[in-house]
Design a protein that fits this description.
The protein is an alpha+beta fold. The protein has 2 domains: 6-375, no CATH class; 399-628, Rossmann fold. Helices cover 52% and strands 16% of the residues. The protein has 17 helices and 16 strands. The strands form 3 sheets. The chain has a 6-stranded antiparallel beta sheet, sandwiched between helices. It has a 6-stranded mixed beta sheet with strand order 12-13-14-9-15-16. Strands 8-7-10-11 form a 4-stranded antiparallel beta sheet, covered by helices on one side. Strand 2 (43-48) and strand 3 form a beta hairpin. The longest helix is centred in the middle third of the chain and has 49 residues, at 237-285.
Length: 629
Amino acid sequence: MTKPDHVEYYCGFLINKLERLRNKQLIKDLDKTLRKQGKTKHSHSKELNTFIVAHSHLNAAHFEDSENRKLLEAKLMDVYNKKYLPKIKNNRKRALEKDIELNESKKTLLRATRHLPQAQATEIKEQINTRFNELLNDLNRRFDEMNDKTVFSLWDLPGVEEDRLILYNQIINRPSSMEGEHEAIGELVDEMALVIFSNQFLPNLKTLLEGPLSLAESGVQILNSHRSFLSESASNDQHKDDFTYALRVLLGKILGVRDIIKVCKREVARFKRILGEIDVEADYLHSEGIKEVARKFIDLKEVKARLSDVEKIELSLGDLTSLLRDLVHDSDLRPVKSSARHNPLEGKLLQYILDFYIALEGIRFWTDTYADIVQFTVLKGGVAFEYGEVVDIKIPEDSALYANDIFKQYKLPVSTVYALRGCDIDIKRGEFVSLIGPSGSGKTTLLNIISGLDTQDRGEVYVDGVNLRKLSDNQLTELRRDKMGFIFQFYNLMPVLTNQENVAFPADLAGKTGDKKGRSLELLQDVGLGKFHGQFPNKLSGGQMQRVTVARSLMNNPVVLFADEPTGDLDSVTGEAVLALLKEFHKQGSTIVLVTHDLKIAGHAERIISMKDGRVTDITTEELEKMML
């Protein structure tokens, strides 16, 4: 077996996505270390969801020696542990300490003790201060461990020894089922990063869920058992208000955490899906051993147990919300008497509020910190942060529009939006296709990319056999002008041009010298507006203006006609008329891509592509009808 001249190496480090500047500096420091210690010019570090992953081609002969590999790993760990983590941990600690919601709630709970007997008030105050400090210390410890114990290295060592996955200080060798196999280890980086993250996330979540689970399930009984004293008198208005505010703290926390619980459930479900994604990757790489490695880190039974815990809490919180609203109302109506005596149940109820509040805050911080994990995207046959070079592929001759493995992400201040996650589309010449999906599913992003208005991070788009990524900006403009037609929701007509001039405008831009006047007038007649050719758009109704845009979109005989929510600004009757026009032009041979969120409108097409969470799939008319029920 011929030894390769280089080995592939990947290492991953958990980051705080809020620390944008420090994350950029970490990327620079990792690349610098890889180039120096790895004696290579090829190093490529990028953000992969909640990780920064460094990648390098290293000299095979030098890194046959395991000591050289350990030395490189140690140098990279030094960069992370000494330059990055101290500042991140310190900033995170300060952010927790200054959390406004946490501090205001603490003040309210402390204030509610003022009317308890002195000994009991002192005791509960001490508990409040202690519990809040313990919460912060516990969270900081958990977050620190997540950073420390999710570090990983992946070595691709063909002909040297088994490929190795190194997690923290644990080496996972390739299992016996993979003997004699060799797969490109880089194709597993995104999957393994998520698997390794789950290995630390789930055990911590289990502990953090125990308190809310117990307190939520017993909450209705506990609160009802203390309800009687709320009908008794309070010593003064301030006393009544202080205790009512304490109840509102818990009610507000429960109302707020219900959305957090939904995110938490999606986080856990993400770890369930990764096992299926790894199975797909294993089949793609013809390697069953990958499944064995993944299951060393993720226990499906544990994932299901955590989902069950979260669902139980979610159900209990619904019952508690109604009860707490009633208790707040009862507390507001408490009579006031200066001679009222203290009821010992008040201290016990305040204790319960404290316990439950602290437990829910743990879930809030934990879930919020890693909320972006829900969007963690993995790709079959590669990693999400490697966008790759432009590669020409063979496409079918009858394809008007062909898209392969389209991936697009947007970085926001606190998260990463994976708008497209490996979309494949093949639209034949003369097809009428509807692209449907709810708001936020990625429809507009996909439309912009397949029409050349935006560029993808990965994958190829072909229009009339031309690879869009190989074109300059000027060439893309020319291609859109000559090969594509556009119908927009809000018309985009030029108010200073007549309707006929608006229709002819694409031909003017293209510098065509044919019978533009005759062609534009013919198109206006086709859409039933020939007699309005000399008028300006502002004299037309909305439906008539949309007909003008339909005529304009066909002026240059486009290869593909894109209609983006063309009936969105029209009434139903006028919208049907516009759709009838599109169907008529389709019969004449036009290729049409209709983008809509309206399932009824989508049914006018002969083929329907559904979009959800950045991915596409063809659906049947029967499936569409079921969706409409």
